[in-house]
């Protein structure tokens, strides 16, 4: 080999060493970045962990806060509002109508009750509320609703029914914060969910509806004003008398339950013929230091329209779960390149909805095709390797599992408050009811898109309730799905309240 040949060989060797060094360097850097991702996911998992011991602490905190909220006005973040519903439906007969206003769609319902736990027929119509009406005047808003009801009745009865509904009782589910003054009256405290009809705030919502019905020539009587959780409890109780509580987990979340009237300490003058009273907990605002909060939750709260408010809701409800996942993926994208170049979409709030997150979580194709599709179409993230898609699924799982298990703890907290969890209530740890053979069958009605449509969420929730209660008590506690429960329940409450011409609950 000549000098030239040697020179070339040496140059080649140097070049290949350099290439190898670059490649090794890249691999090391890439491994380091991957390690960062794995560490961040592990940190998330640890911060969001819900071992059963922690869940039991949440159970206790929920029961204690419920007690405090009942003891005095403002005694807890839980408002524990009176609903003036003291008798839950059980065995009503006849045809009843209900309206449900609570979001972008409103619903009109007609149900035929056949007594003895039977619903003989139901018709439900969903109608979107035009965006312009959400910020109009109360007159325009309620005229729209009254007209829709009138058309519905005419359609159902081939134009023959308007005279037949004269004097008929109507249930009204209104899922906004309302200060109830009787079972059929209450004033709007504030609008939420994008509504802003200013002239309605602090007005009696039933009066507004009643006037609009008259303007449309509908002679009907609004006999019950309820929120969605109370409606769900009503229908649950109609179908199964062991139903003592109801939970809604949809866009937002809330719960209500049947309490002894004498336990409502802040309202000692409460007279109730049944000795009971449904309490609207407004549990979305529950807070406890035992809740496993992560830095992503803190950021979500700070950037929300209502910081320091609805802390529990922000960890568990449909409006927020997708956005928590988006925040985690955003951080992982900043710290590594496993999701490719940083997509600007990742910094857009609420761009990843909870149904899309659920679709990724439940993707069972071997190459996670659905995950890839949603990443591309929704977040503008393309050509993601399989290991990154797996990370995506893992993050969805951590966020959903925590949410479902916290709801489970909340439910057991309610059961604990009313002595239905087998421990004998919040003042003692003894197994009272159960050991003395008194543990009773207990049903909780559950409604809302997250529970009914997100299978993994529902399974995690059911599993956690059984885990917290333990195998001896769990068989006594049943969670029952109530689709459309809130509207049907309002019609039932209209039925059970129509028989009585005066309110049976008074505050002295
Ligand atoms: P609302 O709470 O507005 O009365 P729903 O009870 O129907 O309405 O719940 C709707 C919410 O449920 C949506 O905002 C969404 O977060 C959640 N949701 C609906 N479908 C699914 C799904 N397939 N997977 C996960 N979440 C869902
Ligand atoms: Mg709802």
Structure description:
This is Phosphotransferase. InterPro entries: ATPase_NBD, Hexokinase, Hexokinase_BS, Hexokinase_C, Hexokinase_N. Pathway: Carbohydrate degradation; glycolysis; D-glyceraldehyde 3-phosphate and glycerone phosphate from D-glucose: step 1/4; Carbohydrate metabolism; hexose metabolism. This protein has about 500 residues and is an alpha/beta fold. About 45% of the residues lie in helices and about 20% in strands. The chain is built from 14 helices and 15 strands. The chain has helices at about 5-45, 50-70, 140-155, 205-215, 230-240, 295-300, 310-315, 320-335, 355-360, 370-380, 385-415, 450-455, 455-470, 485-500, and strands at about 80, 95-100, 105-115, 120-130, 170-175, 180, 185-190, 220-225, 245-250, 255-260, 270, 275-280, 440-445, 475-480, 505. The strands form four sheets. The protein has a six-stranded mixed sheet with strand order 1-12-10-9-13-14, sandwiched between helices. A five-stranded mixed sheet has the order 4-3-2-5-8. A two-stranded antiparallel ribbon has the order 6-7. It is globular and about 110 Å long. The N and C termini lie far apart (about 110 Å). The relative contact order is 0.16. It binds adenosine-5'-diphosphate and magnesium ion (MG). Adenosine-5'-diphosphate binds near residues 318 and 453.
């Amino acid at each position: 080999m000549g000098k030239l040949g040697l020179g070339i060989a040496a140059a080649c060797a140097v070049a290949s060493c350099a290439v190898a060094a670059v490649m090794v360097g890249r691999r090391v850097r890439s491994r380091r970045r991957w390690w960062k991702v794995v560490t961040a996911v592990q940190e998330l998992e640890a911060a969001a962990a819900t071992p059963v011991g922690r869940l039991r602490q949440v159970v206790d905190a929920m029961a204690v806060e419920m007690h405090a909220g009942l003891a005095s006005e403002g005694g807890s973040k839980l408002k524990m509002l009176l609903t003036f519903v003291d008798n839950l439906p059980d065995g009503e007969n006849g045809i009843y109508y209900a309206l449900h206003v609570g979001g972008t769609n409103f619903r009109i319902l007609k149900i035929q009750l056949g007594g003895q736990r039977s619903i003989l027929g139901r018709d439900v119509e969903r109608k979107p509320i035009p965006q312009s009406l959400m910020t109009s005047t109360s007159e325009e808003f309620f005229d729209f609703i009254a007209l829709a009801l009138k058309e519905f009745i005419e359609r159902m009865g081939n134009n023959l029914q308007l005279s037949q509904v004269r004097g008929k009782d109507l249930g009204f589910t209104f899922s906004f914060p309302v200060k109830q003054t009787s079972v059929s009256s209450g004033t709007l405290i504030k609008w939420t969910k994008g509504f802003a009809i200013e002239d309605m705030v602090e007005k009696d919502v039933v009066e507004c509806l009643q006037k609009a019905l008259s303007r449309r020539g509908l002679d009907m009587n609004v006999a019950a004003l309820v929120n969605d959780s109370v409606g769900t409890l009503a229908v649950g109780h109609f179908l199964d008398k062991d139903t003592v509580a109801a939970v809604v987990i949809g866009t937002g979340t809330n719960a209500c339950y049947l309490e002894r009237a004498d336990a409502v300490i802040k309202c000692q003058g409460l007279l109730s013929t049944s000795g009971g009273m449904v309490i609207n907990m407004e549990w979305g605002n529950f807070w406890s230091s035992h809740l496993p909060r992560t830095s992503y939750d803190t950021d979500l709260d700070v950037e929300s329209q209502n910081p320091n408010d609805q802390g529990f809701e922000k960890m568990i409800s449909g409006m927020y779960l997708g956005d928590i996942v988006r925040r985690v993926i955003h951080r992982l994208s900043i710290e590594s390149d496993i999701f490719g170049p940083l997509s600007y979409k990742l910094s857009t709030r609420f761009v990843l909805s909870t149904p899309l997150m659920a679709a990724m979580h439940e993707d069972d194709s071997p190459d996670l095709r659905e995950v890839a599709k949603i990443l591309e179409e929704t977040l503008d993230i393309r050509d993601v390797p399989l290991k990154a898609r797996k990370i995506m699924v893992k993050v969805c799982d951590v966020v959903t599992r925590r949410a479902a298990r916290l709801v489970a703890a909340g439910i057991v907290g309610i059961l604990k408050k009313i002595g239905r969890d087998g421990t004998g209530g919040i003042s003692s740890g003894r197994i009272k009811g159960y050991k003395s053979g008194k543990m009773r069958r207990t049903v909780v009605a559950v409604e809302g898109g997250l529970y009914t449509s997100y299978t993994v969420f529902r399974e995690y929730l059911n599993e956690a309730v059984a885990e917290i209660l333990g195998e001896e008590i769990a068989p006594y506690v049943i969670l029952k799905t109530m689709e459309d429960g809130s509207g049907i329940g309002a019609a039932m409450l209209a039925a059970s309240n129509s028989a009585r011409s005066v309110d049976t609950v008074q505050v002295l």
